Amino acid sequence: VGGLAEVKKELQRLIEWPTKYALEMKQLRLRQPKGMLLYGPPGCGKTLIAKALAGESGCNLLAIKGPALLNQMLGGTEAAIRNLFEKARQAAPCIIFLDEIDAIAPVRGTSTSSDALDRAVGQLLTEIDGVQALSDVFVLAATNRPELVDPALLRPGRLDLQHDVPFPDEHTRKEIFAIHLHGVTIADISIETLAALTEDYSGAKIEWLCTTAKKYA
Fold first, then answer.
1. DSSP structure class, residue 101
2. Rounded CA gap, 198 and 209, in Å?
3. pTM confidence score
């Protein structure tokens, strides 16, 4: 994963500290965060971070988009959330990745159609409050619109950590190009030049640029 140094450092702590500093954490009664919210524009690595975390930690990954949990039946959305967390507990250690979390956890009281989404937020809060630590279940959520997410989810003890995942800067773009062009012969242009020419490109757009160049080659 190119760039996102702060996010990667935080997640490395979640993976390494329980084993590397188990005694110190016990002495300090240090609680591991229960969850993290990643927010930023599409294509900047939020989903990639979730997959990388699952791979590095050896945890199982349950990835689902928020809208997929919505159910028109009375109580259906709450049941879907309960089932998701039950599966995660059975597969522990497990990471739940909730993409587009704003679809199932909008600010309560803003839905004009019914109170179904308010109940869904309540169910989600109940489940996260019951999660123990990374050794059990860790919740990683992502959204393009953080202002739409209910504030109760963002308080300490729930999605404790919140990180912006912005468009990559020039240094990060060089890292992303280096990853996607590793082992590939490049003629007449350098990675540094490519990085300078691609301001405001997302990581996904850079990957597609490299894929298209390889296709033409």
1. G
2. 10
3. 0.80
Q: What is the DSSP letter of 155?
A: S
For residue 71, what are the contacts with CB-CB under 8 A and spacing of at least 6?
Answer: 77, 79, 80
Q: What distance in Å separates the CA atoms of residue 8 and residue 53, rounded to the nearest whole number?
A: 9
Nearest to 98 by CA among 72, 71, 61, 134: 61
pLDDT(109) > 80? no
| Conformational region of residue 29, where left means phi above 0, alpha means psi within -120 to 50, and beta covers everything else | left
Return the pLDDT at 135.
Answer: 61
C-beta separation of 26 from 184 below 8 A: no
The β-bridge relationship of strands 137-143 and 161-164 is unpaired
Q: Could you give the CA distance from residue 198 to residue 167 in angstroms, rounded to a whole number?
A: 11
Residue with tokens 């992502």: 142
Cβ 148 vs Cβ 36: under 8 Å: no
**Mean pLDDT for the chain?**
85
**Could you tell me if 194 and 177 are in contact, meaning their C-beta atoms sit under 8 angstroms apart?**
yes
Distances in whole angstroms, Cα of residue 80 to Cα of each of 10, 83, 88, 148, 157: 30, 5, 12, 21, 22
